[in-house]
Amino acid sequence: MEREEQLEVPYHALREALINALCHRHWERYNLTISLAIYDDRIEIASPGTFPPQITPENIKEPHESYPHNLKVAEALYRMTYLENWGSGAKRIMDACQAQGVESPTWSSDGGFVTITFMRPYFASDTTKIDKEDKKATKEDKYRSTTDQVPLNYRPSTAQVQEMILSMSDDYMAMNEIMSNMGFKHRTSFRKNYFLPALEDGAIEPMYPEQPNHPKQKYRLTELAKEWIKDNSDHSKE
């Protein structure tokens, strides 16, 4: 018997993303290359070029026709069976992520590159496990240790946190839902300027506090944030 290794981000999703990068990159920009970057919290594959006029970061997740920038490359990959049905790459990527229970990626276009971003699910290797009491807190973990210290007369620490609080409902929301409500497309900027400050403020709380990077993680407003909304609503009526 052989042990089957499973990547934290599905192999088939990464493979499909790289194939798509080859098909759609702008080869005339010979001084630029496709890049694969691995960060602590995400994996990014960036390809020189732009989306076709018919495709956006939002509708790419919906059924659509294929518009390969490099038809010859796409045909070669199709004949070699690296490509399956044309125009179904995004769906296969999302299906692979769903089958493994990880978050679907996001697409963005900025600075002459099209980027697909996979968030890395939470994991801990056997060689790095230590007692929870001694584990250095991440920014998400800090929520649990600071919530009790937030004063009762809570005020958002920044205008961005205030904006995020006012955009959320009382129900649990995935990060993508919060971003959509606020009109954000780029996760990195949103996390840095809105999400993490709100978490450290004690304005939001996770559904799975013991697993910050749970694939089905969602967040809701804390009672302190709700009270702040109520107080401000009462003051506006005076």
TrEMBL record:
Pfam families: Fic-like_C (PF21247), HATPase_c_4 (PF13749). One of its GO terms (molecular function) is helicase activity. This is ATP-dependent DNA helicase RecG. Residues 160-222 form the Filamentation induced by cAMP protein Fic-like C-terminal domain. It comes from Phocaeicola vulgatus. It comes from the Bacteria. Keywords: ATP-binding, Helicase, Hydrolase, Nucleotide-binding.
